[in-house]
Design a protein that fits this description.
The protein has 202 residues and is mainly beta. The strands form 3 sheets. Strands 1, 2, 3, 4, 7, 10, 11, 12 and 13 form a 9-stranded antiparallel beta sheet that branches. It is built from 2 helices and 13 strands; from the N terminus they run βββββββαββββββα. It has one domain (18-191). Helix content is 7%, strand content 40%. The two termini are 37 Å apart. The chain has helices at 86-93, 185-191; strands at 18-28, 33-35, 39-40, 44-51, 57-61, 64-69, 74-81, 96-97, 103-104, 113-121, 127-137, 157-164, 173-177.
């Protein structure tokens, strides 16, 4: 008689998004990894994480699958925002605000790398927590539209980021579900107060 399958982990859909934070990645070498101070980014509406190059390179020999090589992970991370303050744009796009408070974009601006973290409420009232360790923003998508009488059309900003692995340890994402795998609510309280450092028992 076949044995019964292992019970499924608890399933609960995600229904929210909040507490988005970013931290500048200041040093990322094989020897050293350093992040700067966290910055809260208010107004997050939606976040989408999409793998861009997940297809493996398969080598066949002797009429069978002989070896498989997986490409380095690269993700597209898209965030829809109620608004993106100019001070945040200056940080993530590498722009400059002049003495009069005007944001100036220059062709030589180079967006720096950041870690991005956020949490998503689940239908059971608990949270899923996410860190992407090394992301860089692409040019901002801005939407502007005229008012149509009494109809209000909200214009939301959208930032698209490219997420890649860190040079230091090749890690690129951390995900935790509150109440699962030993991850407690107390751990969740501090998960977004600093960029998460993994802990593995040898």
């Amino acid at each position: 008689m076949p044995s019964n399958p292992t019970a499924s982990p608890t399933v609960s859909s995600t229904v929210g998004l909040k507490n988005m934070v970013i931290a500048p990645l200041t040093v990322d070498t094989e020897e050293t990894l350093t992040y700067g101070d966290l910055q809260l980014v208010a107004g997050a509406i939606e976040a989408t994480i999409t793998p861009d190059n997940a297809d493996p390179d398969i080598q066949y020999a002797d009429d069978i699958e002989f070896d498989v090589l997986y490409p380095d992970p690269e993700l597209t991370f898209t965030t829809k925002m109620a608004d993106i303050p100019l001070a945040i744009q200056e940080m993530i796009f590498g722009n400059n605000i002049d003495d009069n408070g005007v944001l100036i974009r220059t062709s030589t601006d180079k967006p720096p790398y950041f870690a991005v973290g956020f949490k998503s409420e689940k239908s059971n009232g608990k949270f899923r927590f996410v860190w992407l360790y090394k992301v860089r923003a692409k040019p901002l998508t801005e939407n502007y539209a005229t008012k149509e009488g009494t109809t209000i059309n909200r214009q939301t900003g959208e930032v698209e980021w490219t997420a890649i692995k860190r040079t230091h340890d090749a890690r690129y994402q951390a995900v935790a579900d509150e109440g699962e795998n030993g991850f407690t609510a107390a751990m969740g309280e501090t998960f977004l107060t600093s960029v998460y450092t993994p802990s593995f028992t040898p």
